[in-house]
């Protein structure tokens, strides 16, 4: 999308070297203990795992931006709706919840969707505003009449411990795909409306859907208990406590010279890491294959010259919708993976600065249009984002050391966490301006 | 430098060579207009007619050649500075401020003037009585011909000595075209030189004091409008018989 | 049927709050729409810049309060406002020079500007946090009420009370003055007309001798004033929390788009439309209905949507406009 797309030759060693540097950073984090690094493999792997999830999110954003130039500012929402999947798929069913209001709830949701479909049909057939309004009002009343009692009944069911509809008790890995589907559905609805208009409109519309999805998760207690959170989401990997009680594992840990507690933590994180790597590589493989296919060539042709592509009879809006839905599905998968890793659904944690705009920094820094660049940018920026939390106060501590104790010193020390936002904003602006093709430019 | 005693045309653009990218569009094109004259540039599509006019106005970097206006070399000046030197330019499209009223359009035309512009505005309204009636209406709501009048009026607000028109009659009906040409003659009678590019070559040459037939960015024929219309070669090749 | 009490309840819970909120949104949307008209992009940093201007104003207000300066019944923040505007103007002019001017010279795609504004948003957000932290701050002083509930009840003898907070009245009055001044500027002064001309037709404005950089600078200064005033009024009315200023971005965008991006009259109308819809949809109408139809016992609160979904209202309005009239009700892209 930038003016300097015509590539100056980039050394083929650039990406491998950058990835090697990244690996060294993680090695240092795992082994060296000083003011900069923790020297804990548990910390290093925890950062890496979240970094891998960020990388998958960044891949989704990169599909939308790098392949098609679509600016999605609702990443947080697509992550959140993806995160709903583990809750609804993998949690055990809540006793009595379904009986309390399940069918009625489904009926209400169907009525809601039916109303919208009906309104569309009426609009297309009659073109009469009042008729559409009538359908919508009638549909809304019916929806609320079905919905409200169902929700009240479900939320009253074992309110202290559950109060939600519960899950299906299926394997949590399955929920990753479902998370992608959820996000794809939401993206289809938004894209259908906002694509094909001025490019800013998609940005604004996705900002809206992002906030609304998070608001729904926060306030619809029947869905995922809202702000009461859902903990204990099943894991696809062993629990630490199981490992610690397993004599074989205790032996194994002792042989490597780790304490059992530490070793079990590392083992679990390694298992997650492998799972995440499999997903990440699979998505990259599919993305690269797609990009090299006729479909991918067409996408790039559209991105580089929308007017020309349109003149050649390509349905630009339809292609944009496809890539927008696909990218959002990938973000949804990442959202489901994140909730699985945390084992906790806490809707209040979905902050747009952290989950939308930080992802954007990752994509731009990594190199928009390049999948490996997005991965690199994501893991690197995530590492820095986490470490700055430690480095910032240390640095400011050193800088203000000579100052006398007092309000100013306290204020400066307290302001360190805010520096992260300024730093990230500056990184985004500097890369956008001086290296718009990112660390690993598109080939 | 020509000596002051020797009469020289008001506008003299000599041997213009240049283009937007690597390839030149103009290959030694020369245009001159005397005071109060109407000069018309005609030629086939892609001959560089509009480009030649843009070069005169400074919207195209020249590799060779120079533009002299009223004895002063203005080759290095930007279009804005050329406006201050007495050039007025009416682009072919997007030549008005559509949501602003007719009157505001004229005011914006006079933006660089700090003196009282009411007299000039009255003259423009005299020239175009049809738009004078609609002075409080948004210019974008007017008909195509009236919009062209607003566009010409806007360019006249700086009291230019040379008015350049890029296909002023593109997309208007024949009646409106005749009317516009009448107005242009009227403008020229006040002593303003006119340089215009026209697609409707025959009609334009009829009012031209001097005509330039451009082919591939260079002068092919230069003569009075009348003479060009009479030239069988020109008629056959460029005027369709 | 008790029309009077119903009317008072309506005024108290719907009309007055929505009018004040609408005025705040209108000022915000005016800023967005002006920036769109001249610089041709949707400014995602708008909310956070509002927060920055408000934060400066709050700090100066506290300073004035500690010096014992006050405006009597009016909030001291009004005295501090010019300082906030000036600081914000300096900041946005600096931002334009450091960030946007480069892309303008490149004639970059609008979406690149939007992206850059996201970077600016981060920085502004961090600056505001540095200045004042992330917590809620109150800074209103002076008279709390113009009409207090109890006084109104005693005066009118009605069961329903009516409150008009001074910040609400102040918001509407200040907005009216600002809008009048802005329209006078845009329609009557040479600089204002130059801005409209630039918005209408950039190339022709250049030919006419209008200096684009001057127009851009003027736009940022006006936008800074609009942002700071909107932010301070919003903060006085509802208290200041930086995150709320990020969230208000959506209703502001909705208002600007409903009115037609680039159209100031539309932005004002859009602001009130969004605000009234939001309040009307999230207000529990059971009380008003109770006065109007005494015999009727509705099962619920007659609330169409919980207040926690107020942003959904902006979103739905936005979607409807995009579906049926993407250029907005007043057709946009022009000042």
From TrEMBL, chain A:
An example Pfam family from this entry, by short name, is BPD_transp_2
Tell me one GO molecular function of this protein: branched-chain amino acid transmembrane transporter activity
| CDD domains per record | TM_PBP1_LivM_like
Where in the cell does this protein reside? Cell membrane
Chief localisation class: membrane
Q: What are the transmembrane regions?
A: 43-61, 68-89, 101-122, 129-147, 167-189, 201-218, 266-291, 321-341, 353-372, 379-401, 421-440
Alphabetically list the UniProt keywords. Answer: Cell membrane, Membrane, Transmembrane, Transmembrane helix
Query: GO terms for CC?
Result: plasma membrane
Could you tell me the membrane topology recorded for this protein?
A: Multi-pass membrane protein
- The reply on keyword Transmembrane helix is yes
Name of the protein in question: Branched-chain amino acid ABC transporter permease
| Organism the protein comes from | Paracoccus subflavus
UniProtKB/TrEMBL annotation, chain B:
Q: Is ATP-binding one of the keywords? A: yes
- InterPro entries with a match to the protein in the record: AAA+_ATPase (IPR003593), ABC_transporter-like_ATP-bd (IPR003439), BCAA_Transport_ATP-bd_LivF (IPR052156), P-loop_NTPase (IPR027417)
Looking up Gene3D superfamilies in the UniProt record yields:
P-loop containing nucleotide triphosphate hydrolases (3.40.50.300)
One GO MF annotation is:
ATP hydrolysis activity
Please name the PROSITE patterns in this protein's record. ABC_TRANSPORTER_2
Cite the entry's keywords alphabetically. Answer: Amino-acid transport, ATP-binding, Nucleotide-binding, Transport
Residue ranges of every copy of the ABC transporter domain listed in the record: 11-241
* Signal sequence residues: none
The Gene Ontology biological process terms listed for this entry are: L-amino acid transport
Question: What's this protein's family per the entry?
Answer: Belongs to the ABC transporter superfamily.
Q: What is this protein called?
A: ABC transporter ATP-binding protein
Q: Which organism is it from?
A: Paracoccus subflavus
Automatic annotation (TrEMBL), chain C:
Q: Does the keyword Membrane apply?
A: yes
Species name for this entry? Answer: Paracoccus subflavus
Q: Where is the chain membrane-spanning? A: 6-39, 51-71, 77-99, 111-132, 168-186, 215-236, 242-261, 268-286, 306-324
A GO cellular-component term linked to this record: plasma membrane
Where is this gene product found?
Cell membrane
Give UniProt keywords alphabetically: Amino-acid transport, Cell inner membrane, Cell membrane, Membrane, Transmembrane, Transmembrane helix, Transport
Family affiliation: Belongs to the binding-protein-dependent transport system permease family. LivHM subfamily.
This protein's name: Branched-chain amino acid ABC transporter permease
Q: What GO biological process term is on the record, naming one?
A: D-alanine transmembrane transport
User: Which InterPro entries does this chain map to?
Assistant: ABC_transp_permease, BCAA_transport_permease
Molecular-function GO term, any one: L-phenylalanine transmembrane transporter activity
Database matches in Pfam families: BPD_transp_2 (PF02653)
Record's PANTHER family? Answer: BRANCHED-CHAIN AMINO ACID TRANSPORT SYSTEM PERMEASE PROTEIN LIVH, HIGH-AFFINITY BRANCHED-CHAIN AMINO ACID TRANSPORT SYSTEM PERMEASE PROTEIN LIVH
Q: Which CDD domains does UniProt cross-reference here? A: TM_PBP1_LivH_like
Q: What is the membrane topology here?
A: Multi-pass membrane protein
């Amino acid at each position: 999308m930038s003016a300097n797309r015509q590539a100056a030759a980039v050394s083929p060693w650039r990406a491998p070297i950058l990835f090697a540097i990244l690996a060294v950073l993680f090695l240092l984090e795992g082994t060296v203990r000083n003011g900069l690094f923790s020297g804990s493999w548990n910390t290093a792997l925890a950062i890496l795992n979240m970094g891998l999830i960020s990388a998958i999110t960044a891949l989704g954003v990169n599909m939308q931006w790098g392949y098609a130039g679509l600016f999605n500012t609702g990443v947080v929402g697509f992550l959140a709706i993806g995160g709903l999947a583990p809750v609804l798929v993998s949690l055990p069913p809540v006793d009595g919840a379904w009986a309390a209001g399940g069918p009625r709830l489904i009926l209400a949701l169907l009525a809601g969707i039916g109303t919208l479909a009906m309104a569309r049909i009426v609009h297309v057939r009659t073109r009469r505003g009042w008729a559409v309004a009538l359908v919508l009002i009638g549909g809304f009343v019916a929806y609320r009449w079905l919905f409200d009692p169902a929700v009240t009944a479900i939320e009253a069911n074992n309110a202290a411990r559950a109060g939600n509809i519960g899950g299906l008790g299926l394997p949590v890995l399955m929920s990753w795909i479902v998370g992608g589907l959820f996000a794809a559905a939401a993206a289809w609805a938004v894209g259908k409306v906002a694509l094909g208009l001025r490019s800013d409109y998609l940005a604004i519309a996705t900002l809206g859907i992002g906030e609304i999805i998070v608001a729904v998760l926060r306030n619809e207690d029947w869905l995922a208990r809202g702000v009461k959170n859902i903990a204990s989401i099943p894991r696809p990997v062993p629990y630490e406590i199981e490992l610690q009680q397993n004599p074989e594992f205790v032996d194994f840990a002792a042989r490597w010279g780790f304490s059992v507690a530490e070793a079990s933590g590392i083992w679990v994180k390694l298992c997650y890491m492998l799972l995440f790597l499999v997903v990440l590589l699979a998505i990259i493989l599919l993305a690269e294959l797609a990009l090299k296919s006729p479909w991918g060539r067409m996408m790039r042709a559209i991105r580089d010259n929308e007017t020309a592509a349109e003149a050649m009879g390509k349905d630009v809006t339809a292609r944009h919708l496809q890539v927008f839905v696909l990218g959002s599905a990938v973000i949804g998968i990442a959202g489901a993976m994140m909730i699985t890793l945390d084992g906790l659904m806490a809707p209040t944690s979905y902050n747009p600065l952290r989950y939308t705009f930080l992802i954007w920094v990752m994509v731009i820094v990594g190199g928009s249009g390049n999948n490996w660049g997005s991965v690199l940018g994501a893991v690197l920026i995530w590492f820095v984002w986490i470490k700055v939390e430690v480095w910032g106060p240390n640095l400011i501590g050193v800088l203000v050391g000579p100052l006398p104790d007092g309000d100013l010193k306290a204020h400066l020390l307290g302001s360190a966490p805010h520096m992260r936002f300024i730093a990230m904003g500056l990184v985004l602006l500097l890369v956008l301006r001086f290296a718009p093709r990112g660390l690993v430019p598109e080939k | 430098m020509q000596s002051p005693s020797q009469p020289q045309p008001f506008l003299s653009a000599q041997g213009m060579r240049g283009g937007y990218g690597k390839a030149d569009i103009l290959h030694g094109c020369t245009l001159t207009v005397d005071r109060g004259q109407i000069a018309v540039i005609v030629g086939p599509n892609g001959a560089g007619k509009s480009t030649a006019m843009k070069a005169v106005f400074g919207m195209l970097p020249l590799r060779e050649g120079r533009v002299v206006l009223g004895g002063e070399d203005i080759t290095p000046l930007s279009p804005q500075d050329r406006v201050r030197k007495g050039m007025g330019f009416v682009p072919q499209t997007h030549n008005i401020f559509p949501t602003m009223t007719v009157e505001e359009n004229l005011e914006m035309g006079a933006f660089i003037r700090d003196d009282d512009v009411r007299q000039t505005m009255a003259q423009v309204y005299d020239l175009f009585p049809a738009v004078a009636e609609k002075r409080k209406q948004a210019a974008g709501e007017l008909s195509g011909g009236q919009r062209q009048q607003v566009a010409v009026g806007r360019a006249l607000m700086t009291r230019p000595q040379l008015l350049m028109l890029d296909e002023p009659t593109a997309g208007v009906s024949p009646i409106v075209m005749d009317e516009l040409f009448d107005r242009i003659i009227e403008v020229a009678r006040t002593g303003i030189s006119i340089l215009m590019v026209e697609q409707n070559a025959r009609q334009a040459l009829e009012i031209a004091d001097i005509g330039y037939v451009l082919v591939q960015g260079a002068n092919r024929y230069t003569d009075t409008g009348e003479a060009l219309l009479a030239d069988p070669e020109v008629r056959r090749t460029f005027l369709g018989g | 049927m008790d029309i009077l009490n119903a009317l008072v309840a309506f005024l108290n819970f719907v009309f007055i709050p929505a009018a004040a909120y609408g005025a705040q949104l209108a000022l915000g949307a005016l800023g967005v729409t002006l920036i769109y008209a001249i610089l041709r992009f949707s400014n995602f940093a708008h909310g956070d810049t509002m927060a920055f201007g408000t934060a400066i104003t709050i700090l100066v207000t506290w300073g004035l309060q500690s010096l014992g300066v006050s405006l009597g019944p009016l909030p001291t923040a009004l005295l501090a406002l010019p300082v906030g505007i000036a600081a914000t103007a300096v900041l946005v002019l600096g931002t334009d020079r450091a960030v946007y001017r480069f892309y303008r010279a490149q004639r970059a795609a609008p979406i690149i500007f939007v992206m850059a504004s996201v970077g600016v948003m981060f920085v502004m957000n961090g600056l505001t946090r540095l200045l004042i932290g992330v917590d809620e701050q109150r800074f209103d002083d002076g008279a709390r009420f113009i009409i207090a509930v109890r006084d109104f009840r005693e005066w009118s003898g009605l069961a329903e009370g009516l409150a008009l907070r001074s910040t609400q009245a102040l918001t509407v009055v200040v907005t009216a003055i600002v809008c009048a001044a802005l329209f006078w500027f845009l329609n009557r002064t040479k600089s204002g007309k130059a801005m409209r001309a630039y918005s209408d037709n950039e190339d022709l404005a250049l030919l006419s001798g209008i200096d684009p950089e001057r127009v851009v600078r003027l736009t940022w200064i006006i936008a800074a004033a609009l942002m700071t005033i909107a932010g301070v009024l919003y903060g006085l009315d509802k208290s200041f929390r930086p995150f709320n200023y990020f969230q208000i971005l959506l209703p502001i965008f909705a208002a600007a788009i409903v009115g037609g991006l680039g159209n100031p009259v539309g932005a004002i109308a859009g602001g009130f439309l969004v605000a009234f819809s939001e309040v009307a949809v999230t207000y529990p109408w059971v009380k008003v209905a109770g006065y109007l139809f005494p015999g009727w016992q509705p099962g619920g609160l007659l609330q169409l949507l919980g207040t926690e979904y107020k942003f959904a209202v902006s979103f739905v309005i936005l979607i409807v406009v995009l579906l049926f009239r993407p250029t907005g009700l007043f057709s946009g892209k022009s000042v």
